[in-house]
Amino acid sequence: MKRFLFSFTLFTTISLSSCHKNPNIAPTLPNTDSSAQTQLTAINGHDRTPLTPRLVKYGSRTLSYDTQGRLIKAVDAYQERTYEYTSNELSCVIKQDGKVQAILKYTLNAKGRCEKIWLNRTIYDGYDGKILSNDWHNYLPIYDLKGRLSQIQRENSLNLPSLRYEFSYNTDNNLVEIRFLENNKLSKRQLYSYDKPYTGALQVDKDPLNPSLPQTSGPVPFETYLLDLYVDVFGQFRQHLVRSYQEEIAGKQLANYYFTYKLGDNGYVMAQDAYNGNTNVYKSTLLFEYKTPFLVNPNL
């Protein structure tokens, strides 16, 4: 998903504004930390009650839910994702231009935690649109003693290089680094911070989305699909809003951004402004919209 949808989940959709903004904008800080908010939550990332707001707009993408409050579709002009559920599996079909690009299947344990990822990858001929290849690969998620995702390994690599993602967290249980290794050699790093470049109390993230993964070196970066942004099957990656993001390859900086937020009265993010971390130049705004279930679906 490389339409400037590079790697960070909260800055990976279409830019919604290009006007100039003050790079020294003071962040909104109504939600400070508390002992209750910093505890790791339930197995599905964050507990949801019948009144928990659901994300219905993420940039230009619209999300819809079934009568049980489960995500069933995420659509924008670029891509359509459709979700289906069984007792031990969550599947996601990803389409672009009406064609299936990938199919994700998450095998779940009794607590709803992902135990295996299956990824079907389809590559089309750029000239006539015919299918050049269609194959399945499976990946093993590994969790640490605190139940946090610590690694994802590709299992059936065939003639492809071995792939591994490694996840590191700070003492606040916030994801601070993703390392991507090919054939056991470090290829890329993604770095996250929650207390800089500007000061102030940490801001609680009331609906933490999953991170996007660094792209592989192959012709089609299918592995970026592995962690769907919206599904709660890997546990929680952070407690707080990300303030800065950097990406490196071979020790060289590819990206450097910092973010400020506008929060609603309920503490959920309404807008995220992104700035170039080197120049302080405003880049874009990502809008969020949340609704409670009875507004998402009157039958819920």
Automatic annotation (TrEMBL):
It comes from the Bacteria. This is DUF4595 domain-containing protein. It comes from Spirosoma profusum.
